[in-house]
Amino acid sequence: MTTSHQPQDRYKAVWLIFFMLGLGTLLPWNFFMTATQLSESAFGYFITACAVIILTIICYLGLPRLEFYRYYQQLKLEGPGEQETKLDLISKGEEPRAGKEESGVSVSNSQPTNESHSIKAILKMYISVLAFSVCFIFTITIGMFPAVTVEVKSSIAGGSTWERYFIPVSCFLTFNIFDWLGRSLTAVFMWPGKDSRWLPSLVLARLVFVPLLLLCNIKPRHYLTVVFEHDAWFIFFMAAFAFSNGYLASLCMCFGPKKVKPAEAETAGAIMAFFLCLGLALGAVFSFLFRAIV
């Protein structure tokens, strides 16, 4: 290829791409290195994330009020067969009618119409318990992990290597493994059912992990005494805490779309995702309270 036929970077796009890559990589590290206090810098990052989540929630709640959204939501909920029938009639030069009359009987009157419910109706009539459950699950989970659990200290390390790896293994690795096991179990075993009262009862029972973890060997502490000092207690509580989180949260997210009509399953899934995010936001807020009462 000659020099005249080589592609020319007319708009300096290559330079701009590498500039943005370098800026995006080095700028966050520069913030950490130049921050007066690491805790203040970290607080700023996390509070920004919480603000974005709150703004997203507000926008999501205001979305159904827009005429543009309501129009396309209604258009999506209409059955594809109904739209194809209208298009066929229009192409033939006929006016789309509500139904045909055969033998003096109106077909449109003899068949039930495909009713669609609003977001509030779906939430109130079908998935309110499941939405509350998934919100409560993640409120408890994020309220305790990792803000409180990372402050637990080993009582048997005694300056050994285990003291260095205690939190990475006992807290983060244990949580992720057992959370994954709980989520994976729902692929082969789903108990209790979507209409069972045991499901919200088990979700509320997870509240017991708050005092159990707060009474572990958390340091520094000012108010509560240590009851479960040995490392084995903390590892056991973390395993049960993570497993119940993964299993119950997956059950709620799976059952939500199954309790409504197929045409409304996507809306139900979006509602469940919203309450999941709400639980994450509430958990981040409650984490300050849980840490303060230790």
Automatic annotation (TrEMBL):
Cellular component, GO, one term: apical plasma membrane
Any one GO molecular-function label of the UniProt entry: uridine transmembrane transporter activity
Lipoprotein found in the keyword field: no
Protein's cellular compartments: Apical cell membrane; Basolateral cell membrane
Short name of any one Pfam family annotated for the protein: Nucleoside_tran
Coiled-coil segments on the chain, per record: none
InterPro entries found in the cross-reference section: ENT1/ENT2, Eqnu_transpt, MFS_trans_sf
UniProt topology in membrane: Multi-pass membrane protein
Regions that span the bilayer: 12-31, 43-63, 125-145, 165-182, 203-220, 232-256, 268-290
Bias (Basic and acidic residues) ranges: 91-103
Region: Disordered, residue numbers: 91-113
Protein name: Solute carrier family 29 member 1 (Augustine blood group)
Gene: SLC29A1
